[in-house]
Design a protein that fits this description.
This protein is α+β, with helices and mostly antiparallel strands and about 375 residues long. The chain is built from eleven helices and 20 strands. It has a domain of about 210 residues: FAD/NAD(P)-binding domain, CATH 3.50.50. The strands form four sheets. Strands 6-5-14-15-16-13-18-17 form an eight-stranded mixed β-sheet. Strand 14 and strand 15 form a beta hairpin. Helix 1 runs parallel beside helix 8 and helix 8 packs antiparallel against helix 9.
Amino acid sequence: MIRSAIVIGGGIAGMASAAVLGRMGASVTVLEQAPMLGEVGAGLQVSPNGLCVLRALGLEPELINRGALRANAVSLRDYRRSGEVARLDLQRLAPDQAYYFVHRADLLDVLKGAAKRASADIRLHQPVTEVRKGDIPEVVLANGDVLRAELIIGADGVHSVARSSLNPKSSAFFTKQVAWRAIVPNVVAHPKEARVYMGPGKHIVSYPLRGGSFVNLVAVEERNDWQDEGWQQHGDPDQLRATFAKFTGGAAPLLDAVEQTSLWGLFRHPVASTWYDQGVALVGDAAHPMLPFMAQGANMALEDAWDLGRALKAGSIRSYQSRRLKRVTKVVKATQGNAKRYHLRSGPIRLAAHLGLKTVSKVAPSLMLKPFDWLYRHDVTDKRF
């Protein structure tokens, strides 16, 4: 068992890791490059597999108190017609399972509170320029300071400094897809479900946040002209509406309500080949960046944090990667296929696919969730420490 750890990155992966390791009795320091932690990001979905970790940390009640909504369904819809194509009834999950919609800032705040209660030292405005692995690994800050601990955890995202200390540089490629993100007032009395409006080469996802007062919007379009990666680039709401002007179904009033939006170029990165070596470990996007089409980024980060803690407790940290690699690789692969199903072009193939979904949804609704058992029924906390 380690006595000291430095976590690089104060996001979901970083705060979850700090909470887990602090709970184990380690002295944890979190280094976050931003000058403050605030309303960063938008909505996210906590599926049953990620919720297992939050429950093990005793955080589910606090999440609910902050306005997290328990989801009833995922509703697949046509971009121009009213009514459903198909429905994944989340109320058919096992009795001990639940699925939540939550604002990223709220989940982050809950995890930060857990980390602080575990005595983690959270330091803001601490950009890291270098990570040095070794018997006593080191972190070099932008101001030249050098910090040491028994373990350094890279939770610093897709452009991870820690990852580069363990792996050769890898190149990402643009998927020819761009995501628009926005949070709007709930002008449509949006029910507690995620709605996916599927159109040729485009789709929109919407779901309620913060007790139903707001709606999270993610609108994805296929596009060739994009250079920069990142989700904090400002977009033009009128351009968003023009791009999705043919979405005349239930998403239209939500698009009309957009006042601010950001753009996110979707890039694919390879899963890291090495997740641990000589006192440096990777969690979350630093190890396995993934596209957003199965809403698993935060959930995989939560799983990583717990599994890393379990490996450390057992004294076999090298088993961490071997346990996680197969699972996250499968999630990454499944995520990449979802966009294709949402973006089917008009024609016989699209009609047949939608008819098939509608038939199964009505005749055998329980079968709609069956393909996700491998994902949602996985409980990384089944052997608690």
